[in-house]
């Protein structure tokens, strides 16, 4: 990576002010609902008792944080209240933020590589996208391609969702937006054949990154597993350790359903990372906390809008800060 790329990365990277603004904007609905309701019960002078804890618990659960993760947060909160001898309910919001932040920082989602670099001695780096229909796989592929291209990588997209009629056209639009090439065959073609063609082309051209779109349907677990295995097996003929990543796209607007899908998919496919889409359109952003806490695989990226630059590398501390609208982050920005 060149010197100026490095500088640019630093400016626009995950902790950058611009990026944080977009994140905060994207999380508006979640923040209004979640923190808004918390502040309404955590007012100055209110006594801390079982009733208050029950109210906090309900807010967490109805914000899609999930029962198991909510239990953990409430238990941690209880310990802190006793340890720090907290008397005033108003102080609880900061403790909640610290504990949620701690929980996410202890999860596999805490460390993310934001550099979009590729192992030069093992190209192409192969990424597959899976997930149920409409969650945002194709959109995410366009956004990922854009990010890799911005980081100076060459990208080739493989249109292996040969199941849906309009899939090729839609993916082609995203490839054009990102300014990268796409390999496709006719609607109904063998997805493994498309993947094979894409990797062959990438190998011949010396492409850095291959991103494979899939139909990734879960209506039939056996079918999905077999299809993914077949695509992987055929790709290995060209790149023995492909695919390097299998990303599961999940629609955050579906809340607890997204967590359920994560559990189902990880049973049938070796998922390496989660992409949580549509965080901008929902008050259910709490699902991110549930998924980060419950899953043994990291949340890698989040979608905060429909534009090509609306994909962010998941940054646990920035996420919690944006959810609670942290002042220290806001203060870092130039006036
Ligand atoms: P796929 O069926 O999984 O390939 O899903 P698509 O990529 O076709 O996306 C389905 C819909 O979700 C499209 O209308 C996208 O514009 C929309 N979408 C995807 N990601 C996001 C996001 O981060 N935010 C918003 N608001 N919409 C999104
Ligand atoms: P099956 O024949 O459909 O049961 O599955 P295969 O594992 O043989 O491969 C699936 C698809 O990938 C094939 O239809 C080919 O289009 C493609 N493919 C796999 N291996 C090769 C190969 O060595 N050369 C070429 N040209 N295509 C291959
Ligand atoms: Mg699609």
| CATH level-1 class | Alpha Beta
Low-pLDDT windows of residues: 1-15, 329-335
Write the CATH fold name: Rossmann fold
Taking the sheet with the most strands, its summary is:
8 strands, mixed
Q: Name the shape in a single word.
A: elongated
Give the strand order, joined by hyphens, for the main sheet. Answer: 3-2-4-1-5-6-7-8
Which molecules are bound besides the chains?
guanosine-5'-diphosphate, magnesium ion
**For the CA atoms, what is the radius of gyration?**
21 Å
Mean pLDDT: 89
First and last CA, distance: 31 Å
CATH architecture: 3-Layer(aba) Sandwich
Oligomer: single chain
Would you mind describing this structure in some detail?
The chain has 335 residues and is an alpha/beta fold. It is built from 14 helices and eight strands. The chain has helices spanning 3-12, 17-26, 28-41, 50-62, 67-83, 92-105, 137-150, 167-178, 191-205, 221-236, 256-268, 286-294, 316-324, 327-331; strands at residues 125-130, 155-160, 181-183, 209-214, 245-251, 273-277, 299-303, 311-313. The protein has an eight-stranded mixed β-sheet with strand order 3-2-4-1-5-6-7-8, sandwiched between helices. The longest helix has 17 residues, at 67-83. The protein is elongated, with a radius of gyration of 21 Å. Magnesium ion binds next to helix 7.
